[in-house]
């Protein structure tokens, strides 16, 4: 299920195939989307220089045959990032994650683990910044943590995976939209405080 149609299907497929072939970093396009979403909607604006190494898997880019290939890879990742920014700037109420699908007993089931794992990784890029949300609205993070952390997987197993999935997976998209809304006033406040007033 593709969500960010502003990012061309051809580029989505190209980037996805590229990630799968890489041995380091984030190797799944859906996981990358979760990762980038957390960075886009989080409390602070992070420089790509801070989080791109997490994508390619090391302080310095490796595994690229030349500078041109590296530049193409970065351009695709940034294009994907910007498409997510555009969704939350224009129509955050329409946000929906891109998820894999499978069929179980004739029913369509969305696979949410990869996306949630990516989101948790994105949060960890600014762990201190996310503290207020963890403290004030842990309920918003619950569905993501259930499917994106080891502790959550154990809880799902204990509670019955089918039941837990049916109950909690539909809450992921609304939770992300609410997380975005939670940070808006704080991001605006930070932006205002950084504006240099004329003397």
Briefly, what is this?
By secondary structure, the chain is mostly helical. The protein has helices at 9-21, 29-41, 48-56, 67-90, 113-124, 131-136, 138-148, 150-159, 161-168, 172-193, and strands spanning 100-104, 107-111. It has one domain (9-193): Up-down Bundle (Four Helix Bundle (Hemerythrin (Met), subunit A)), CATH 1.20.120.740.
Structure characteristics:
two-stranded antiparallel sheet; 10 helices; 199 residues
Question: What would you say this structure looks like, in words?
Answer:
This protein is mainly alpha-helical. The chain has one domain (9-193): YgfB uncharacterised protein family PF03695 (Four Helix Bundle (Hemerythrin (Met), subunit A)), CATH 1.20.120. The chain has helices at 9-21, 29-41, 48-56, 67-90, 113-124, 131-136, 138-148, 150-159, 161-168, 172-193; strands at residues 100-104, 107-111. Strand 1 (100-104) and strand 2 form a beta hairpin. It starts with 8 loop residues before the first helix and ends in a 6-residue tail after the last helix. The relative contact order is 0.14. The mean pLDDT is 89.
């Amino acid at each position: 299920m593709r969500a960010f149609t502003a990012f061309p299907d051809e580029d989505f497929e190209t980037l996805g195939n590229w990630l799968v072939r890489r041995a380091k970093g984030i190797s799944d396009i859906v996981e990358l989307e979760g990762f980038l979403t957390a960075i886009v909607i989080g409390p602070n604006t992070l420089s790509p220089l801070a989080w791109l190494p997490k994508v390619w898997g090391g302080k310095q880019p490796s595994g690229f045959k030349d500078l041109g290939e590296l530049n193409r890879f970065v351009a695709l990742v940034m294009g994907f990032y910007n498409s997510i920014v555009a969704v939350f700037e224009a129509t955050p109420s329409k946000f929906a994650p891109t998820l894999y699908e499978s069929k179980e007993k004739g029913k369509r089931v969305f696979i949410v683990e990869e996306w949630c794992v990516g989101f948790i990784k994105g949060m960890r890029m600014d762990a201190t910044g996310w503290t207020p949300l963890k403290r004030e609205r842990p309920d918003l993070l619950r569905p993501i943590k259930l499917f994106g952390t080891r502790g959550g997987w154990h809880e799902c197993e204990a509670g019955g995976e089918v039941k837990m999935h049916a109950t909690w997976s539909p809450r992921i998209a609304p939770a992300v939209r609410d997380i975005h809304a939670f940070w808006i006033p704080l991001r605006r406040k930070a932006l205002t405080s950084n504006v240099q007033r004329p003397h």
